[in-house]
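re the bet — no i am not wrong, look at it urself. input seq straight from the record:
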Amino acid sequence: MKLEPWALPLEKGELLLCLYGCRVQLKLMLNFFTVTVPLLAMVTTSGTLPFSNYKMQGPPPPVDDKPFSIIKEFEPSNNLKTATKEVAPQKTKEKRLICKGCNTYESRALKFLQNKGIKDKNALATIMGNIRQESTFIPNICEGGARTSYEGCRSGGYGLIQWTDSSRYNGLGRHANRIGANPSALETQLDYMINEDDWKLIENQMKTPGRTINDYMRLARKWIRWGHHGARTDYAYDYSRKLVFSES
């Protein structure tokens, strides 16, 4: 019968080698127990390790008494801006005059004049009465009733207050060129009207409240220099009845 290699009898040298290996293993085990058993005995009796008397160099690390949390707490920083809701100051309502039953051009002229500092109802009514007499608030009207451009009006007056003199008529064109606007537009003519020298002569008095329509009308004659009075005073009284205060 054929035997397995491990079952074959050992030679003399092989037997010695096997015994030597066992002796080495036994020696290692004895050394392990020689060190481990006393160490375990010391831990069991004293509760400390042999190297517990080791002293660290420097002060001990600080101890935080607060409970540990994995959530990092952030404190507000001076560099961080706090979001605040800005509350707009309450706007004071201003009483302004509006014209009941007036057309768009009349209402725009009234608003323009108030924005320029004319607040008295009679003063406003007087100015509007004169514009109605001269042009019925049609800015591109030439004397006689023709609707045309600034350049198309060859004779007579032109515009809101019928600028007739060459100096006043040409002044409208120069003013429009200076501000880059159309000389036939309502706002252009209103702006020119309050910048004329003739208006500047009475401006402060027209801005002074408390006068009658007749008082303001006498001032307006120096400004417009009309030759025919017409119904301008009647128109002024009509506007004074239409002008009412409204909060805006």
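see?? The radius of gyration is 54 Å. told u. also The CA atoms of residues 199 and 233 lie 19 Å apart. so pay up
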